[in-house]
Design goal:
Elements: E1 7-14, E2 21-28, H1 33-38, E3 40-47, E4 56-58, H2 62-65, E5 72-82, E6 88-92, H3 95-108
Antiparallel strand pairs: 1-2, 1-6, 2-3, 3-5, 4-5
Length: about 110
Amino acid sequence: MILRPYAVVVVPFPYSDRLSEKRRPALIVSNADLPEMLGRVWLAMITSVGSSEIGDVAIGDLAKAGLPVASIIRCSKIATLDANRIVRTIGQLAEPDVKAAQEALRLCAAF
């Protein structure tokens, strides 16, 4: 499986407040070399929850992303998973959504 930056994938995403996980869509935010070199990916959570947090980005092109309902990228919730835990790829962000995600990731990161 080729794991490209800004691909939307389905993964068992870990909860941040308990020792469990839920299968959900997530956005690959690591570069393409990380899974090839180390077997890991960095992922941002995607959710359909309506509440808003700092770093949330609404996905404009849901069809291209492969998502059936209005969803947001929660850039403040990042996880590292082994690439072999990715269940499947369902889509890719459209360019305007990529730019919005990049800005939100910068807002949440220390660079």
